[in-house]
Design a protein that fits this description.
The complex is a heterodimer of chains A (about 350) and B (about 270). With about 350 residues, chain A is of the alpha/beta class. Chain A contains eleven helices and eleven strands. Chain A has two domains: about 190 residues, no CATH class; about 130 residues, no CATH class. Chain A has an eight-stranded mixed sheet, sandwiched between helices. In chain A, strands 4-11-10 form a three-stranded antiparallel sheet, with no helix packed on it. In chain A, β7 and β8 form a beta hairpin. With about 270 residues, chain B is of the alpha/beta class. The two termini of chain B are about 35 Å apart. Classes of the chains: A alpha/beta (about 350), B alpha/beta (about 270). Chains A and B meet through β4, β10, β11 and α9 of A and β4 and β13 of B.
Chain lengths: ~350, ~270
């Protein structure tokens, strides 16, 4: 058993990413006008202060992919797994837990399993936060505590590396010369940095008037008839940005296609905010109104998943609020549901 | 194993039930069996897929039948298919009818339109052990006389001594001599103890709603009403998210539900 903590200098970290590029498709966050987007690693790495705009799940389930060539099975081409550097806590935690439940419980989805087994996650602490970030309000920390292979925390001239898995341990072992022991001073520096970020973050969270996270489930359960759903849904333009950017949305649609090589089934990310999501042959649709669809999204995340696996399918990343052109904001929805729940209904 | 890969099936016969409904007989390319009430996903190769509940006797192992109404893009293609064509099948999926809980009971089966498809399979399964049941009352409704499916089987359905068979049409034509009215009009003066009996309802959502409400009115317990729910299942495996109803996935936790388990949910009839 090797140690849990290591130190790596900035230049050695670049060497590590170069080495990893031999076995992995390495992706890093790249900043464009204060937003980070996943980009292929090309020799430069800058530490990201907060989460990317697009979620990590794109490396575990593709937004569009062929999943079989039926009646004519062929072995698919081997592709390199992903190494994702700079994933934040809000892309791990409940996001991976609920994805594991959906795709690995019962009938195992081979595509997800392969990605989950082979992909390497090098996560990192947040040192700042965006206006829409609210992970703390859900009781989640802005630094990864589990479900990573390696986690890096920015310290002087380099990173404190925490080992989180067997896979992570193997990366350290096979790149031993790049790592140094992490002394107590470096570990203390990480703790101080984390504490400072959380303290700064708290003032943003406190100004939200967000209800206690233990009450979110009951607020949704008792809020089916709330007028807020209809009011908020008026501004929904059905673009689906909240779905595509959400780390816990997992819905997909199977489709069929063909070419000279045969018949294929594919799958494409789908979601309950789209009009035809629940449409059946003949035209009936359970979620035919935007207000039903908006409410449905919250039922799934705050009622269905807690019922099944005792976690909210929400990590507090705030991407839905950030990307919504209609300014539908999860933080405001819970605040309003909370306020409305206090007005006595007779 | 890739859970999304369909197996090949060959069409061996096509029965025209009504102008819009056909029953397809399939010979599976590999071992296939289902329990009555379970559903399958049928693939039209390269074009699309749709969920159906087989309408044949679940005890028949060498073939299975699916009754398809022409309502959309994929079902129209199925209707154009010919004997000998190869399609794909995935499944069976979900939970079927809890036959064992029907033992020694009086049963009321209420069906409407193409909802008769799953019920036909259920009727076969029940008739295979007909002496297990005290009494079976079957009430079926169709839009018009020409919309009645399985006309050629109705006499057979009436045969067992402990079965009472009722049929109605919404709109009669000049040749029709039977009942006229929606299916709930058949539910009066039932020769069963409604407080103890099991009710099984399958049909279009609006019919299921009013039939269920009628059964409650007649004294049925919500725990004794079994509904076959319809949603747009895509994967059939509880993964794609399309068919979720509250805390359930229709495809995995259903499609057959006990009314009591879902009655408090929002908009279950949509």
């Amino acid at each position: 058993m090797i140690s849990k903590y290591f130190y790596i200098k900035n230049n050695n970290f670049i060497k590590l990413l170069d080495n990893l590029s031999a076995d992995y498709r390495v992706f890093i966050p790249q900043e464009t006008r204060k937003n980070y987007f996943w980009k292929k690693y090309k020799g430069n790495f800058e530490f990201s202060r907060y989460r990317t705009v697009n979620p990590l799940r794109q490396f575990f389930t593709s937004s569009v992919e062929h999943i079989n060539n039926y009646f004519n099975p062929k072995t698919p081409k081997e592709t390199k797994p992903f190494c994702i550097v700079g994933a934040k806590a809000c892309d791990l935690g409940n996001s991976l837990k609920m994805h594991d439940y959906v795709f690995l419980e019962g009938d195992i989805d081979l595509f997800y399993k392969e990605m989950r087994d082979k992909n390497l996650i090098i996560s990192s602490d947040c040192t700042s936060f965006k206006e829409t970030c609210f992970c703390l309000a859900l009781g989640n920390m802005p630094y990864p505590e589990a479900l990573f292979d390696l986690n890096i925390s920015q310290v002087i001239d380099g990173y404190l590396v925490e080992v989180g898995s067997k896979k992570g341990e193997e990366i350290i072992t096979s790149n031993k010369s790049l790592f140094e022991d992490a002394n107590n001073k470096i570990q203390a520096e990480r703790e101080a940095n984390r504490k400072r970020t959380v303290e700064e973050f708290k003032s943003q969270i406190n100004s939200l008037d967000f209800p206690d996270e233990s009450r979110l489930n009951s607020l949704i359960k008792n809020g089916y008839g709330d007028k807020l759903w209809a009011e908020e849904a008026l501004r929904c333009v059905e673009c689906g940005a909240c779905i595509m950017n959400c780390p816990t949305c997992h819905c997909f649609l199977l489709f069929d296609t063909k070419d000279k090589n045969g018949y294929f089934k594919g799958r494409i990310w789908d979601g309950c905010q789209y009009k035809n999501f629940t449409r059946v042959a003949g035209g009936a649709s359970a979620l035919r109104l935007r207000e039903y669809r908006l409410r449905n999204r919250y039922i799934k995340k705050f009622e269905f998943f807690p019922e099944r696996i005792k976690v909210y399918a929400c990590t507090g990343c705030g991407r839905c609020a950030e990307s919504c052109p209609g300014k539908i904001d999860i933080r405001k929805i819970f605040k309003t549901l909370n306020e409305n729940s206090k007005t006595v209904k007779k | 194993m890739n859970i999304y890969t369909p197996n090949k099936v060959t069409i061996t016969n096509i029965i025209e039930e009504t102008p819009a409904i056909k029953t397809f007989v399939f010979k599976p390319g590999s071992a296939f069996s289902f329990e009555t009430g379970q559903f399958v996903e049928l693939t039209y190769p390269g074009i699309g897929e749709a969920p159906f509940t087989p309408s044949s006797d679940p005890n028949k192992k060498d073939s299975f039948e699916v009754t398809i109404m022409k309502v959309g893009k994929v079902t129209e293609l199925f209707h154009k298919a010919k004997v000998g064509d190869e399609l794909g099948v995935r499944g069976p999926f979900g939970n079927g009818y809890p036959l064992d809980s029907f033992k020694d009971k009086e049963l009321l089966i209420v069906g409407g339109g193409v909802g008769l498809a799953p019920l036909r399979s259920l009727i076969y399964a029940l008739y295979n052990r007909i002496n297990d049941f005290k009494k079976i009352v079957i009430c079926l409704g169709a839009r018009s006389p020409q919309d009645i499916v399985y006309k050629y089987l109705l006499e057979e359905f009436k045969k067992p001594k402990n079965v009472e068979f009722r049929l109605t049409v919404d709109r009669a034509d000049s040749s029709w001599k039977g009942n006229v009215g929606i299916v709930t009009t058949l539910l009066n003066k039932l020769p069963i103890d409604t407080k103890q009996a099991k009710g099984i309802v399958c049909g279009p959502p609006i019919m299921m709603k009013f039939a269920s409400l009628k059964l409650l009115e007649l004294g049925f317990s919500p725990k004794n009403i079994h509904l076959s729910m319809e949603k747009n299942m895509s994967c059939g495996l509880g993964k794609c998210g399309h068919c979720r109803l509250g805390k359930y996935y229709i495809c995995k936790d259903g499609p057959v539900f006990i009314f009591d388990d879902i009655k408090d949910m929002w908009d279950i009839w949509d």
